[in-house]
Amino acid sequence: MTQRNLWDELDHEVSTSFINDVKEGKVPDLPYYIVDQNEAKSKIEEKINSIKGDRFQSSLIIANYGNGKTNILKYLKLFYRQKEEGINVLYYPADSDNFDIITNLLKIIEENYTDFIVKTVQELIDSGFEYKTLANSFEDNFSGIEQYTDKFFSSNDGNTIKNIFYLGTGRLNSKRYFDKENLRPLRDYEKRVLLVLFLNILAQGKKHVIFCIDEVEKISGRSKARFSHFLTSLRELIDLSNKIKGHYLILAMTDKTDSYLIQSTNEAVFSRIHQHIIPINPISEKKDKIELIEYLKKIFKSDTSTDTVLGKLSKEEVG
After folding, report:
1. Does residue 319 register a pLDDT over 60?
2. In degrees rounded to 5, what are phi and psi of residue 171?
3. Under a CB-based contact definition with an 8 Å cutoff, are residues 282 and 89 in contact?
4. Is 3 helix (H, G, I), strand (E, B) or coil?
5. Does residue 171 contact residue 136 with C-beta atoms inside 8 Å?
6. Domain with CATH 3.40.50.300 in the chain
7. C-alpha 317: how far from its chain's center?
8. What CATH architecture is 37-282?
9. Among 186, 150, 154, which Cα is nearest to 170's?
10. Which residues contact 209 (CB under 8 A, 6 or more apart)?
């Protein structure tokens, strides 16, 4: 297999649905090659290069509908599916019902990594690993999860570890489940630092994750209160970034939810994330249009002149 670098074109087969979408004028799902967007690609690649470091990374992609934000996220998923680098890309549309980003990430981790978490905890127990380092040595807000973490690492039994993990993610949340493990129920704010613990367990097991959450505008579309809560939870996550060993969160939204709306809804979030906003602009340079046309011609096995297509495109833009 040919060794590919990030942003190289990926192999793919053209589906009938893709061809029909293009014929009907719909925005095609085309995540195999990203034309232009060099600034966005550079910023994303820079953060991916530090995904195994000592800090949680975040980006916010903002684009007009059809400008390719989803293609970038899906490209990353396809690219890392083919590579053995300990990096997983998880793509999810935003959940307007579960609009707290931290509880959403807990659910995603549970869905994808329960068995891996259990296995890693067992290995750490067997090796005598000083597990408190995964929870900021129980300093500051992490003191509230000391009892939970001690219990989590107290038994090598897989089912016991899994049940305690489910208490942390919220899958098991009634008092009787906590009583069974001689634990008190977790407070909401303690779920914030539990996310840090679980992410650090993944990193300790050499598993690093790019969380891609698309269509965040769906949350603001439901209500301003939901969007405000989402932003508050995002601020809380960003404030914990220096306690998390790596990983990367990419949020994407249409410009319906632009940076001004974020600033007006939650100034604290905007002050933390504005330098991490990545705009996706429409393709405007002639050379980039030619590159896109040539790429589409290859996909459709078309021998139509590039100049002809470019001329028609220019007339439509003027008209």
Report:
1. no
2. -60, -40
3. no
4. coil
5. no
6. 37-282
7. 34
8. 3-Layer(aba) Sandwich (3.40)
9. 186
10. 87, 88, 89, 90, 199, 202, 247, 248
Measured CA to CA, the distance from residue 162 to residue 132 in angstroms comes to 19
pTM tops 0.85, yes or no: yes
Question: What's the pLDDT score for residue 1?
Answer: 45
Indicate the range of 124-138, 225-239, 245-259 predicted with least confidence.
245-259
Is the distance from CB of 6 to CB of 45 less than 8 angstroms? Answer: yes
What is the chain's length?
319
**pLDDT value of residue 306:** 83
Which helix (H) or strand (E) segment is 278 a member of? strand 277-280
Separation of alpha carbons 102 and 136, rounded Å: 18
**How do beta strands 57-63 and 248-254 pair?**
parallel
DSSP run (H or E) holding 192: helix 188-204
Instruction: Give 14's contacts (C-beta < 8 A, 6+ positions apart).
Output: 299, 300
Is residue 260 packed enough to be buried (19+ CB in 10 Å), middle (13-18) or exposed (0-12)?
Answer: exposed
> Phi/psi class of residue 139: alpha, beta or left (left: φ > 0; alpha: ψ in -120 to 50)?
beta
Q: Which of 156, 142, 243 is nearest to 186 (CA)?
A: 142
* Mean pLDDT score, 157-175: 97
SS3 59: strand
Look up residue 198 and give its two tokens: 């679980």
Q: At CA 193, angle to CA 235 and CA 188, rounded to 5? A: 80
Residues 33-70: b if buried by 16+ CB within 10 A, e if exposed: bbbbbeebbebbeebbeebeeeebbbbbbbbeeebbbb
Q: What pLDDT, in 10s, does the model give residues 72-131?
A: 999 999 999 877 678 999 999 999 999 999 999 999 999 999 999 999 999 999 999 999
pLDDT in tens, 30-56: 788 898 899 999 999 999 999 999 999
Instruction: Write the CB contacts of 296 (distance below 8 Å, at least 6 apart in sequence).
Output: 302
